[in-house]
Amino acid sequence: QLQLVESGGGLVQGGGSLRLSCAASGFRLDMYAIGWFRQAPGKEREGVACIRPTAGSTNYEDSVKGRFTISRDSAKNAVYLQMNSLKNEDTAVYYCAAAFPPPPSGKSFESVFYNIWGQGTQVTVSS
């Protein structure tokens, strides 16, 4: 069974940091593009970070550039999202997702290309 499990969410004060983890079972994460998406109440789901297979090139949504970092540990079959300088507007449920084949260039944040999704982890940033 192909599965993704997120962890690491929680409540943090504005300006603080969290690291989300995405662990895979049943497949190798480094063969897939892995995206982190988030959905805030009343808003559409949006992609925030993506790491592509093999070379591991990364993409970030503009509002998180310089604050979030996506990384991969092939030995642990896991992907991480380090989130620094958190803001109220980062509050959302965060999901990791895997895409094979990888999304076309320029479409890293289009969820239609992602085949496997985790259950999500809540991140709440307080003032």
Overall description:
With 127 residues, this protein is mainly beta. The protein is 0% helix and 48% strand. It has strands at residues 3-7, 10-13, 18-25, 33-39, 46-51, 58-60, 68-73, 78-83, 92-99, 116-117, 121-126. Strands 2, 4, 5, 6, 9, 10 and 11 form a seven-stranded mixed β-sheet that branches. A hairpin with a 6-residue loop joins strand 5 and strand 6 (58-60).
Secondary structure layout plus pairing:
Layout lengths: L2 E5 L2 E4 L4 E8 L7 E7 L6 E6 L6 E3 L7 E6 L4 E6 L8 E8 L16 E2 L3 E6 L1
Parallel strand pairs: 2-11
Antiparallel strand pairs: 1-3, 3-8, 4-5, 4-9, 5-6, 7-8, 9-10, 9-11
- Our Rg estimate from Cα atoms comes to 13 Å
Secondary-structure element sequence? EEEEEEEEEEE
Low-pLDDT regions = none
Q: Sheet with the most strands?
A: 7 strands, mixed
Class from helix and strand fractions: mainly beta
Ends distance: 40 Å
**Rounded average pLDDT:** 96
Question: How many helical stretches?
Answer: 0
Q: What is the number of beta strands? A: 11
Estimate what percentage of residues fall within beta strands: over 45%
> Helical residue percent?
under 10%
So what's the overall shape?
A: globular
Can you give me a brief rundown of this structure?
By secondary structure, this protein is mostly beta strands. It is built from no helices and eleven strands. The strands form two sheets. Strands 2, 4, 5, 6, 9, 10 and 11 form a seven-stranded mixed β-sheet that branches. Strands 1-3-8-7 form a four-stranded antiparallel β-sheet, with no helix packed on it.
